[in-house]
Each structure stands twice: as structure tokens, then as C-alpha cells.
Write a sequence for this structure.
């Protein structure tokens, strides 16, 4: 697991930004919806199959004014902003969500739950990872549990978290992209036998968009 390599943020007015862009949400409960993505740099969770490992080192990503990010998100016309990473919850997100809501955008976050959650959220997607234990507070805050299935043992691991999240939390199983052909048939059969779960696919990759 890589060592934590986050830069010190001098004020809540700036955050390390890897990229931000207007696209289509490709996964989970809001799959297919227009969304503005804000990808923050910095992560010490260390998923071996991570497809954005360039996000891990926060020090290589510039500190950007929150007001600039929010201005671009608002001008895009997107109805919601999805804060992702890296692991975005390693930062204080109170000011970012305050400004996004003030600009009229819904606030969504995608997090491993490895850190206590800050900010005001309309939707919390909790995607636990085996490489770093989640903070238990995420169980009552998660609106969506999205578990990446890399091998057969991940189904029982997913059920462990399904038993901890709040009532009404939506449950999703998603094949890890590099093993999609092997895992998707297993997921299909599992969901047929356990219909409380739904299938999440990374449709943005099928559509070849960010």
C-alpha cells in the first residue's frame, strides 16, 4: 500500500484538483445522468486495480480555488456535481459543498469511506475497499453501496457491508473492468438469487467517454 502523500492544504478555499469535466455518470444509482465531475488528487487506499493511479499523489496536482471549480461546474449547466478521486474524503469538503449548493447543484460523493465524511451531501456513494478499513460513520450516511467484484470471494465481503448500511441504501455489484468478462456472468447469477442487489456497469467505458 502506498504511503499517504497528500499535500497540506493552506486553507479551505483550495483543494488539489486532478481534473474536472462535464460528462455522463457511468455507474451506480445515477447511471446515465448528466454530471459534472470534480476529481481531487490524493489517495492512500491503494487499490491494486485502480484505473486512476495518477490521482494518488496529491503533490503533483495543483491547488485550485474552490470558487473556480464551482464556477466551471455551474457554467456547464450540469444538475449535479460528483466529487471523486483519489479519495476525496481525506479533505475537508464543507466549503466545496456549500458553494456547490449555493450555485444550485446537487452534491454527490464517491468514497471508500476510509475517512470521516465532511460536507453537505445529497447523495453518498460508499464503495468499500479491502485495502483500508472504512470509518464506521459511513454506514449511516451511505445512500448507495457499490462493491467492485474482482473475484468470487468478494460476494461474501459485499454482504458483510450490506448488513451494516442503513435501511433503504441501494446495493450494487460492479465487475472490475479488467475482469468484466469473467465476473459479470457470476454477478448476473448472484443478483438473480439475491434480488436485493442490482448490477452496476461502467457504461462510460462502453461509450468511450470520460
Amino acid at each position: 500500500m502506498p504511503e499517504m502523500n497528500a499535500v497540506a492544504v493552506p486553507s479551505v478555499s483550495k483543494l488539489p484538483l486532478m481534473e474536472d469535466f462535464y460528462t455522463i455518470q457511468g455507474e451506480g444509482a445515477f447511471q446515465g445522468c448528466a454530471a459534472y465531475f470534480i476529481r481531487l488528487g490524493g489517495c492512500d487506499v491503494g487499490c491494486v486495480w485502480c484505473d486512476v493511479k495518477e490521482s494518488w499523489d496529491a503533490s503533483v496536482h495543483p491547488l485550485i480555488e474552490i470558487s473556480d471549480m464551482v464556477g466551471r461546474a455551474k457554467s456547464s449547466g450540469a444538475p449535479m456535481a460528483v466529487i471523486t478521486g483519489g479519495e476525496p474524503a481525506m479533505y475537508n469538503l464543507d466549503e466545496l459543498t456549500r458553494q456547490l449548493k449555493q450555485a444550485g447543484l446537487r452534491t454527490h460523493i464517491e468514497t471508500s469511506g476510509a475517512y470521516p465524511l465532511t460536507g453537505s451531501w445529497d447523495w453518498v456513494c460508499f464503495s468499500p475497499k479491502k485495502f483500508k478499513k472504512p470509518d464506521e460513520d459511513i454506514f449511516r450516511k451511505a445512500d448507495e453501496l457499490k462493491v467492485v467484484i474482482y473475484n468470487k470471494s468478494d460476494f461474501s465481503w459485499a454482504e458483510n457491508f450490506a448488513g451494516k448500511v442503513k435501511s433503504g441504501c441501494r446495493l450494487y455489484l460492479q465487475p472490475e473492468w479488467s475482469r468484466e468478462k469473467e465476473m459479470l456472468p457470476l454477478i448476473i447469477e448472484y443478483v438473480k438469487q439475491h434480488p436485493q442487489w442490482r448490477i452496476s456497469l461502467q457504461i462510460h467505458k462502453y461509450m468511450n467517454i470520460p
Remarks:
- Residues 1-11 have pLDDT under 50 and may be disordered.
- The beta strands are 14-24, 34-40, 63-65, 80-84, 106-111, 123-126, 144-149, 170-175, 197-199.
- Residues 14-206 form a domain with the TIM Barrel fold (CATH 3.20.20.70).
